[in-house]
User: Fold Prolyl 4-hydroxylase alpha subunit domain-containing protein from Stereocaulon virgatum.
Amino acid sequence: MGQKSQGKSVSYAKRKAPEPPVPAPDWPTLQPLIPITDLILETLLEEQIIVIRNLFTSTLCKQLVSFLSQLPLTTTSVRPKAGEAVRVNDRLMFDDPAFAEQLWQSTALKELVTGSNERNDPGNAISDDLKKLWGGEVCGLNPRIRIYRYGPEQFFGQHLLLCTSLLENPPTILEILSWYMRLVFDPLSMLDGSYVTDPDNVAELAEGLFDNDRNGDEDWGDDEDDESNTIVLPTSPPSPAKTTWTLLIYLTGPATGCVGGETVFYPEFGSARQYSGKRTEGTEPVAVGLEVGMALLHRHGQDCLLHEGRKVTKGEKWVIRSDLCVRR
Assistant:
């Protein structure tokens, strides 16, 4: 099932000092857009996977692909280290609070996510049901923006997105030893996709316990998918926040000649919180096909499901990535 990966090994290497971040690009205006009255949150898997079809128009997506094609994306290593999911794609990460705010405020995202469109309420109030769904009161998007491009034969193997919920509720010593013993005495069980972590996630249970130098990223500060999700939004005054849901916006799909590249979730293995590598009978994978302009929201952290980005067989898959932020 999907691409195979290696399990997480223990290392005592120290983090390296981060390099200066990549400067944010000068984005085009996010226009034209479809009226919010024509958009909805569509649930594909209860409390786990939600899509917004046509968040971006095909015209806007074409403009963005042309714009992003000029940026200096970097190709990932084809030889992941221990504990890394197999990933082959081109990517770029930068901090861009202005674009995150534009994406949140000028599109339908804010109104759909907070439910203000249904209440005819321009304020920031959010219902208890939505707070429960999103993991708190959503206050914006993560200013750390990632750009992904997958060409033919490129993919992202099965992985879990672990975040600082692990720091807040860390695994016990016995759980850590259990993972390590599996790696030492039963390594084949770690190669069948039964315990895979994202190569770009930090799950430090104590400083320096897990090595975070991976996938050709020479510095921890160059890690574009760091799921250590406690952040401070650069508002006035600054807003302590944490990320709870991943936001992916697909700019290409079958309509643009991209074949493959589906994002596939495996609820039969349960969430990261309960993950044991054992399947639950009667539960089927959820495959989300690419659609031009569609936004995909899915949980990360301890509630994340095992998932993968299937191989692209033709064309290019372009994705803009951010995260929903809730107040701390």
